Structure to design on (79 residues):
């Protein structure tokens, strides 16, 4: 089962979108460890268990997309 990030509506208290980390490294999944979101909600930065930081475009919360992916030695410090 892949790890994922869910986006919720504050007004309705329901999930409106989700991004799944479907990439696998030698058959093991990737899970989010830390998340930082821009105050306007347009981007989310997610550090994962595979020593990487993911830049998600969340400007359309119903369809978050991967913008960039960067490997880091300690991704938690980036968020």
């Amino acid at each position: 089962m892949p790890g994922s990030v869910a986006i919720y509506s504050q007004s309705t208290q329901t999930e409106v979108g989700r991004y799944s980390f479907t990439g696998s490294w030698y058959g093991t999944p990737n899970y989010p460890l830390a998340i930082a979101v821009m105050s306007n909600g347009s981007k989310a930065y997610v550090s994962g268990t595979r020593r990487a930081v993911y830049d998600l475009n969340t400007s359309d919360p119903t369809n978050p997309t991967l913008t960039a992916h960067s490997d880091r030695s300690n991704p938690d410090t980036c968020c």
